[in-house]
Amino acid sequence: MSVTVQPAAASDDCAIPARAGVGLKARHYRTILESEPDIGWFEVHPENYMGAGGPPHRYLSEIRERYPLSLHGVGLSIGGDRPLDEDHLARLKALVERYRPGLFSEHLAWSTHDEGYLNDLLPLPYTRETLARVAEHVDRVQEVVGRRMLFENPSTYVRFAETEMSEVEFIAALVERTGCGLLLDVNNVYVQATNHGFDPCAYIDAFPIEHVGEIHLAGFARETDDLGEPLLIDAHDREVDRIVWDLYARAMRRCGPVPTLIEWDANVPEWPVLHAEAMRAEAVMREAVRSENAYALAG
User: Fold this and answer.
1) Number of other residues whose CB lies within 10 A of the CB of residue 48
2) For residue 32, what is the enclosing H or E element?
3) Which residue, of 10, 143, 162, 177, has the fewest CB within 10 Å?
4) Mind telling me which InterPro entries this protein's record contains (predicted)?
């Protein structure tokens, strides 16, 4: 089933600029309101704002009056084999109507089973049956919320033996069926490439970049598995790694400037450190685009 949805950004004050933003943290509320830093936009998890009121909504409302906002969900379990939680969808719709986010995204994952909720974003088997189920759920979300949603490529540590297509092929087919957009998480690409042994450059080169509406960058933790092999954890607890910056520049040369988020959810630093990481993303974005334009002119 196809549905008619509105573009992610409905008006100028909602639109997310092709600049860097950061995840909004409670410890930074006052600093942001008092100093009004030069930064493109903020992103929040809607699940943190599904209560009726209180300080979180008061601060978010004030910040939203000054900056564009993006919602990045973690609770829809879009890949689950049960119907979507309609109460959760209703709360999500209310948040979209209240804060008018420029972008709305979710993860290509599942996290529920029967009545239970798992505190992880788990991988999917890339089969035609899964594709049909996920597409049905995406249609339902876009129908209820009335907006196009973006889908984030996952970060995984295990994979299903049962698979009929590559992850990139699955994502491209999902876009074709539903009209959704994509969120390219470059850190997830490198984490998966290391854990599963594939070429991250080939993944980015094959990704349907024309549908990317947002990019995520984050830091990862280095571990080893039971066999002593490298294992990367999508930790969001430190600076972006040099290798991820290089992959980000590669993606920028393919797609041009795109709203880019610094995800830093654990061991959250003081505001100047987080802001500096966002400014580095903007510098990499500018340089990648400049070098690509210079190459095109020389050709």
Assistant:
1) 12
2) helix 29-35
3) 162
4) MbnB/TglH/ChrH, Xyl_isomerase-like_sf
8 A C-beta contact, residue 112 and residue 82: yes
Tokens encoding 122? 């788990």
Angle at the Cα of 45 from the Cα atoms of 148 and 115, rounded to 5 degrees: 90
Cβ contacts of residue 73 below 8 Å, gap of 6+?
Answer: 45, 46, 47, 92, 104, 105, 106, 107
Structure tokens at 166: 């590559």
pLDDT along the chain (299 residues), means of 10: 45 84 97 98 96 91 97 88 90 95 91 64 88 95 95 87 92 97 97 96 98 97 92 95 97 95 97 98 92 68
Task: Report the helix count and the strand count for the chain, using DSSP H and E.
Answer: 9, 12
Unique residue bearing structure tokens 């995520």? 216
Q: CA 69 to CA 16: how far, in whole Å?
A: 7
Q: How is residue 220 written in tokens? A: 């990862």
